[in-house]
Amino acid sequence: MIIDHIGITVSNFSGSKAFYTRTLAPLGIEVVKDGEGWALFGKDGKGEFWIGEYGDAPKPIHIAFAAADRAQVQAFYDAAIGAGGRDNGAPGLRGHYHPDYFGAFVFDPDGHNIEAVCHDPG
Fold it and tell me: Is 86 strand, coil or helix?
């Protein structure tokens, strides 16, 4: 990863924390540290994705999380939809990016476009 971490402002911290906890679990991503109004998600104790109530929520952005395989992309999508996310592209190949690009897209509670992607062949 070329970025140490990324953070986004959310409008409803408890709702967004619940959404991301459930949505990112299939990718092996969990809360590694949290405090009043903020949470840090990552793997193996290393936080890379922050959410928090820091003022006005920004305009929606796009974040793509790496998936180990296509099954994780599907599990991410199912978990996100089950957690209240809105569909923005069901799991599938996106050949216009490259032949093995397998991704799924959902909108989080603030309208951020959240993706899980696997670049490995089927």
Answer: strand
Counting beta carbons within 10 angstroms of the beta carbon of residue 7, is it exposed (0 to 12), middle (13 to 18) or buried (19 or more)?
A: middle
Give dist(CA 33, CA 81) in Å, integer. 25
* Residue 49 tokens, joined: 């994705």
Superfamily of domain 6-53+60-118: 2,3-Dihydroxybiphenyl 1,2-Dioxygenase, domain 1 (3.10.180.10)
pLDDT score of 89: 98
- Read off the tokens for 51: 């959410």
For 19, counting Cβ atoms within 10 Å of its Cβ (0-12 exposed, 13-18 middle, 19+ buried), the class is buried
Indicate yes or no: pTM above 0.70.
yes
Task: Using a pLDDT cut of 70, give the percent of the chain over it.
Answer: 98
| CB 99 within 8 Å of CB 114 | no
The number of residues making up the chain comes to 122
